Amino acid sequence: MMHGPLPDQNDRSNLRAGNPFVAALERGLALCNNIIVVIAAVALISACAILSYSVLGRALFHSPNYWQDEAAVFLLVGATFMTSAYVQQQRGHIGIEAFVGLLSPSVNRIRLWLVDVASFLFCAFFAWKSWTLAHEAWVDGQVSNSMWSPPLAIPYGLMATGMTLLCVQILLQIIIPLSGAARR
Q: What residues contact 20, with CB distance under 8 A and at least 6 apart?
């Protein structure tokens, strides 16, 4: 479910005429998000292939598998967190829209902006804690408790990077209405 109807949501003309730095940052982040989505799609397909191989290997050959589950989880964590900025760019996160029909378009824009500010604060805290986890895992050389023992800095780093990109995306969506441009 997407946020409520905003009449200027698809109007991109004001943004280009507004702040050129914000417009360039939005275009750059959109390009980065599109590249990440393609890589995440490959990661999801890879996770499916790895898990299918794991099931077939156990069922047909009775061979022990010790790396497949963790590899699939790492791929899924990466795909989930790294694509969160793309989902936010499309306003694809779940939202409660009980008030959208009751409020005027200008009040809805203010409501949406306030939700973006609250979301940014939460995601900024989450990103900060994720970077802390990634740094600790890197410095301490933390690995998972499996036989494979991959470094935990990998999923923590993907989580931190994805949350940072999400923060940048939300920050853009906070700044755009303040610059007098159409919001997305």
A: none
